[in-house]
Amino acid sequence: MKARLTLSLFLAVGSIMLLASTALAASEGGSSPWTTSMLLWRVVNTVALLAVLIYFLKKPLVNFFRERKTKIERDLEEAVELRQKAEELIKEYQRKLAGMEQELDKMRGELQKAAEGESTKVIAGAEKIASSIVESAKIAAEQEVRKAKVALKDEAVTLALELAESLIREKISDDDRKRIVEDYLVKVGGMK
Question: pTM of the predicted model, to two decimals?
Answer without folding.
Answer: 0.35
